[in-house]
User: What shape does this take?
Amino acid sequence: MTPLPFLILLLWICFCKSDDRLTPAKPLLPGDKLVSNGGVFALGFFSLDNSTANPYVGIWYHNIPERTYVWVANRDNPISSSLSGNLVLTNTSDLVLSDSKGRILWTTTNNVTTGSDGAVALLLDTGNFIVQSPNFTQIWQSFDQPTDTLLPGFKLWANYKTHTAVRIVAWKGSQDPSAGKFSLSGDPSTGFQILVWRETSLYWRSGLWNGATASDKNGYMWSEVVDDGEVIYSTYNMDNDTRRSHMKLDYTGDVMLRIWINQSWLVLFQLPGDGCRHYGSCGPFGYCDSTVSTLKCRCLDGFEPAGRLQCQLLQRMREKGGSEMPW
Assistant: This one.
């Protein structure tokens, strides 16, 4: 006869293994949540206003007391406050979020039949939510459909041949996860750089990648750019797997790298921030001097200030018709 404690332990092990996944026979219902195998991330229904309604399905850090969301499935199509929702994995390997009236609010479009065993949807400790076949082939991943956050290991890619790039879009407001006016993507046209757009206008750009692997001054993280001739991507990772961090495009347009330390989020960098780092803020013949304590617009050599945020050719250059520069 099997001892009772052993049976309890066996049941507990089976229960924990199913905690990080959905199957066609196991949907996600309000009040349920998936927890990644190592307890790093959780996925479930949530609300931003502490109401009883849970209009969104998303991913957040599981063991951080300050609820921090890193992905939202139905950011532009919330569940009505009077209805409930459910997230199911279909027999064609698609994730489908619908409300209690049967209206589909968000879905993937995999349309892959995997046989009698069926696919599973797994929440990983990386924060990536994936659908995989019984032979462990990945069919879909949330990293391909990011919202406003880049996690360690995420690849911010751009394709030379197809002229396509993955893009993240900021929230509309601090309590509104719908798509806002700021977006971020990689640009390989003149050497890889990161661009932030405010609707259709360029808002900020990083420096061009020089081929080096970079690390932050505190040694918390390192980043690199990989180019295979067709696809180029930027990625970053932390110095150890237990450190929680993310790069976020805030609804204000700032790009922030944050790390959880001493029970709060520490901002390692925040750009463009206040001052003149915004694209074009110093005019066509000026630049933002970041070597001084207070950011300041300055004119390029051969130019002089001419009103607010404007530079013109030096007087002696204008008298010569601007045909030569002083260097």
